[in-house]
Specification:
The protein contains eight helices and 17 strands. The structure holds zinc ion.
């Protein structure tokens, strides 16, 4: 457990919600209800996330994946009851192929916890996966989490709305740092704009955003900034600055509290 404590940083959002960040800065969230707990995303899965979650709840745990990228789904093998959209299910499966995992783990050899078993991680398999669609409700007894689809960052990205505490869990769809729309999995910027306008229809029902990578709760102002900024990009009023990113050259537009990285050929 001590090694686990070093790999994960635990932060209490309130009495029932925990933010679990791994050493690479990927956030998972545990939401404890009355009859069930929901874990949102699973990080890289290099530490023992399942053990940590068990120390925070004695209720049955369902895991919902905000999208199918490796930094959010690679720990999913530690759990049995998984939920993801059909669109990103395909993506999830690509990260449970031995050869893919072998390639990924090379990047983490130096930082993985001492008791980490590379062999087990590479050979990990997922099972019991269920599909979710727009409007799907996770009922935790005293609160519900609603699925709001947000295609853009990936085709099957979702946000989760907790009306009880007025929280939007946004995965990588809304961040107080650059939203990556320049990836192989990214849809056109105009599709993403429509998606975040759809999320914005629920804006009266949440007052903070808990994202997949930010250290702290994020102000909802980022949603407005992204809607206005991307509208300006698509109307040709502004254009991003060409920058080198981890995923090749792309255009970056910075706003006050957030930013977007996109490709000119995928508007
Ligand atoms: Zn992502």
């Amino acid at each position: 457990m001590d090694e686990n404590k070093e790999w994960y940083n635990l932060k209490e959002i309130n009495d029932e919600i925990w933010c679990i960040s791994d050493k690479t800065g990927v956030n998972s969230y545990l939401v404890n209800g009355k009859t069930k707990s929901i874990l949102i995303d699973t990080g890289w899965g290099l530490g023992n996330l399942a053990e940590l979650v068990q120390s925070l709840t004695s209720l049955p745990v369902k895991v919902v994946l905000t999208h199918g990228h490796p930094d959010h789904v690679n720990g999913a093998f530690q759990f049995t009851d998984l939920y993801i959209t059909p669109e990103d299910m395909k993506l999830l499966n690509t990260f449970y192929i031995k050869e893919t995992r072998q390639g990924i783990i090379e990047n983490f050899k130096a930082i993985a916890p001492p008791n980490f078993s590379k062999e087990d991680w590479i050979n990990a398999k997922i099972n019991n996966t269920f599909l979710v669609e727009e409007g799907y409700l996770f009922d935790l007894g005293d609160r519900k989490l609603k699925v709001i689809k947000c295609p853009g960052h990936t085709q099957g990205s979702i946000c989760l709305l907790d009306e009880k505490d007025k929280i939007l869990f946004s995965g990588d769809s809304l961040l107080a740092r650059p939203v990556l729309m320049n990836l192989e999995t990214s849809l056109p910027l105009s599709t993403y704009l429509n998606s975040i306008k759809h999320v914005n229809d629920y804006s009266d029902n949440f007052s903070i955003i808990l994202s997949g990578h930010d250290e702290n709760p994020v102000d909802t102002i980022i949603l407005e900034e992204l809607i206005n900024g991307i509208s300006d990009i698509l109307e040709g009023k502004i254009i991003g600055k060409l920058e080198k990113t981890r995923f090749g050259e792309a255009l970056m537009c910075k706003f006050n509290d957030t930013a977007i990285i996109y490709n000119e050929n995928n508007l």
